Amino acid sequence: SCLVGPQLEIKICTLGTVINRIAYPADYCHLEGAGRQSQPMPIRWMAWESVLMGKFTSKSDVWSFAVTLWEILTFAREQPFENLSDDKVIENIGHMYQDNKKHILLPIPVGCPREIFDLMCECWQRNEASRPNFREIHLFLQRKNLGEYFHHL
Fold first, then answer.
1. Which part of the chain is the Protein kinase domain (predicted)?
2. Tens digits of per-residue pLDDT, 54-112?
């Protein structure tokens, strides 16, 4: 979840998870598995390794960040993978795990610069080590912002 502070700074946290589950129950799917109690999880925003293996790292956060960025660029008019049922989302995640090239990614939002979408696709790499870290993402977005600034001068 993202919180916005009084100086418009963004804080990424898990505090909103309980609130979100109550406010947006359709965004959560109950996952069951070996040694895991059924818990509602926002699978449409989660990296494959988090859904299938319960592995949560800064690289899985990078994946979720890219889905959130996708949402921002669609003006939250679409839910990630809204044309797929929860079962189909999990099946798609399974294709990512199997690395059989049958998985689908989110489409490029209308009006999204190609470089930004390419960044999102990097964040959705199957191999966690191939995903950028938050410092790299921050630097990339800063450069894009400065480029736009100088372009308008």
1. 1-141
2. 899 999 999 999 999 999 999 999 999 999 999 999 999 999 999 988 999 999 999 99
CA-wise closest residue to 49 among 35, 59, 39, 40: 59
CATH classification (class only), 44-151: mainly alpha
On average, the pLDDT of the chain sits at 83
Which residues contact residue 128 at a Cβ distance below 8 angstroms, ignoring those fewer than 6 apart?
47, 49, 57, 59, 60
Where in the chain are the domains?
A: 44-151
Q: Structure pTM?
A: 0.78
